[in-house]
Amino acid sequence: MVLSKRSSEQALFKHELKPVSLHDVYTALHALAISKNDILLVHSDIGLFGLPAASKEIVLGSIIHALKDAVGEKGMVIMPTFTYSFERDEVFDIQHSRSRVGALTEYFRTQKDVARTKQPQHSVALWPANEETLKVGKDSFDDHSIFAKLYNLKGKILFFGVSFTKSCTFVHFPEYKHTVPYRYFRTYKGMVKDGNKQYADVATSTVKYRYFVTNLTSLENHLKNKGLLKEAPLGMGTIGVIDARALYDECLRVLDEDIYFYLKNDGFFKVFNACMYPVIKHMPWLARFLEITFSLIWYRKMP
To answer: Which DSSP string corresponds to 16-83?
Structure first.
């Protein structure tokens, strides 16, 4: 489908009294070398571009059209539709459970030519429907996860408005492969609804101990300095892109040099991290007890 000049110039967002049009979206994607046959995992927060200048249907539909058009029918657009259903003691309804990670992802999920994986914690929706890519395992980050598939497909990760530090779930895949000490293996149980069928299932994942503090700013700056994470302006925000394989390889490399590279690791935190490493290694029961205790205190503080 080729957009008319009028539709491509229609304002989607207002930015300092200047409109942000679909043409501007195409320009930003082109600046980041998004092209035909690309496999894109898209994290998004469109509210960061400016105030909406058109209806929700036009804004979301136009962005999705631009992404599909950029990669073409031989490419693929993948969006997270994470629900964390089992963690929240909710039934994961493959067709109806809403995405908890943004309006664009929920709108994309409901399109008739889009399919969704059956992972109860970290599901994704993809276009065009691809049976092989849809076949993910029960673990969120292992070799059968969508993140491993993105690596094998030589895909890219697109940050559409949202920052790398707030959205890049892919970084947990190299963490899993590296078996970092500050994450532990957890199994979730729950119910899955698939059309008229409902059945019990399990989902697994590695989960960070709550008493460690994530800080991906150093990783983001490192990737930018090496030219791996590229950005282009769009309205009040930016879009960024990084090659999944390059990110994976660099994450493993920095974790080899500093196992706590993903964490806040200065001052008090540096001492705490160093003290907890032998506890986790030699007394895992104590590490889990502290995790449970910390979780109870944390939830008690929440309103």
So the answer is: TTEEEEHHHHHHHHHHTT--TT-EEEEEE-GGGS-EE-S-HHHHHHHHHHHHHHHH-TTSEEEEE---
The type of residue at 5 is K
pLDDT tens-digit series, residues 217-244: 999 999 999 999 999 999 999 999 999 9
DSSP string, 199-244: EEEEEEEEEE-TTS-B--HHHHHHHHHTT-SEEEEETTEEEEEEEH
Q: Is residue 3 classed exposed, middle or buried when 0-12, 13-18 and 19+ CB atoms within 10 A define those classes? A: middle
Whether the ω angle into residue 128 lies within 30 degrees of 0, i.e. cis, is yes
Token reading at 240:
């960024």
Domain coordinates in residue numbering, the chain: 5-265, 266-303
Angle, helix 56-71 to helix 22-31, in steps of 10 degrees: 30
- Write the pLDDT tens digit of every residue in 105-163: 999 999 989 999 999 999 999 999 899 999 999 999 999 999 999 999 999 999 999 99
> ∠ CA 66-43-35 to the nearest 5 degrees?
40
**Residue 233 identity (one-letter amino acid):** P
Rounded CA separation 151/253 (Å): 16
Report how far apart, in Å, the C-alpha atoms of 263 and of each of 165, 291, 299 are: 12, 17, 22
What is the C-alpha end-to-end distance of the chain, expressed in Å? 49
CB 129 within 8 A of CB 135: no
Which has the closest alpha carbon to 16: 292, 240, 178, 235?
235
